[in-house]
Amino acid sequence: MYLFTHIKKYYFLSLVLCSAMLITSSALAQPIISSDYIGIGQKFRIVLYETNLNIDNQLVDIINAQGPNQSWDFSNLNYIDSTVTFEEYRTIDPSDPLLNNPVFAGSNVLEIYTVLPVEGGSPDTTVQYRYGTLENNNWSVNATVSFIDIDQNQIEDTIISWFSPPTLQIQFPVDQNTFWADSTSIFQDFQGMQFVSSIMLDTTQAQGWGTLTTPAGTVSALRLLEKTVTKVPNSPIVDISNDLDFVSPEGIGASIVLEDGRAFYSTRKNLNPMTPTRDLFRPNATFTFHPMFPNPTHSEIQIPFSLERAQQISIRVLDVTGRELERIESTHYSPGQHQIGWSTEHMVSGTYFVEVQGGGVRQHRKLVVQ
Length: 370
Description:
This protein folds into 2 domains: 2-277, no CATH class; 284-369, Macroglobulin (MG2) domain (Immunoglobulin-like, Sandwich), CATH 2.60.40. The chain is built from 3 helices and 22 strands. The chain has helices spanning 2-20, 56-64, 277-281, and strands spanning 24-26, 29-32, 43-51, 67-73, 79-91, 109-115, 126-135, 138-148, 157-171, 179-190, 193-214, 217-231, 238-247, 252-257, 262-270, 287-289, 300-307, 311-318, 324-333, 336-343, 350-358, 361-369. The strands form 4 sheets. A 12-stranded antiparallel beta barrel has the order 3-5-6-7-8-9-10-11-12-13-14-15. It has a 4-stranded antiparallel beta sheet with strand order 19-18-21-22, with no helix packed on it. Strands 16-17-20 form a 3-stranded antiparallel beta sheet, with no helix packed on it. Strand 10 and strand 11 (193-214) form a beta hairpin. The protein is elongated and about 70 Å long. The two termini are 42 Å apart.
């Protein structure tokens, strides 16, 4: 539960930060966010700096300042921790096997979102592939696939989450008078177990604009208030959160968690889109999945791959909906050429996908069993 609450918080921050680059503003006009923030082929590095707890008395002026032409100063707070994330948008490959799954169907934008380990917190990199839809100025996230070693057994666990109904994250355009709401049930499929993890009721309201000051600089920004009620099914547990978010066109943002007085500021850098994301956050995660042979097959398939660096490699067989049928291998391999033989005699004739995964990076090839 903590994992997805944590990811949701940083996801909203990154989402509004991505939209911030297309805010238009001037000294005499409020910022306006357009739907063009989905930048296909763009890649970003976001650093989120967090304060210590219980600093509410230092945030009173910021919290109370809403409306037009305000001033919000985050520069003199005590920042003690930071989280680094990478974010990139791509057009979804039509051959992606997950598009055969109804919860992923219709998605037209793939967002790859990577949260690096936090000192004293999560020991693992979390990688999410978010399948979304951008239509008629509405952006929604349909489903996600997350990779993280939850049980710390050196094997990355795969968690599929989907939203029913798909949550409306942003409705454009957004200015200081914008309001939207959505209700989301999050279903999870973890190692074959399916369950509802939480039900969230969200409202977001843009309340003003003005000048935002952080240790990274002073910029023009828009203020958003997000209220979230999270319910755990068949449980009395209800979590209520209220967050203030400040977004700017210059890639500088800020946020406050009103319940405990935590504050954040963030910086965002546009990266070279030709640089593989895996090389930026996990240098030892480069590999190539070569064509399998013989394919089609009726008895055995050879699965060849090569590694530039030593790393953990996991090989799975998926059906056409993207559901895991069998985990063939999960082992640490040395650099060089490798080849795994796998018997298909127990498989029913049909089409499947073989997935090779390393460092949260996935590569697929189609397998035909006769």
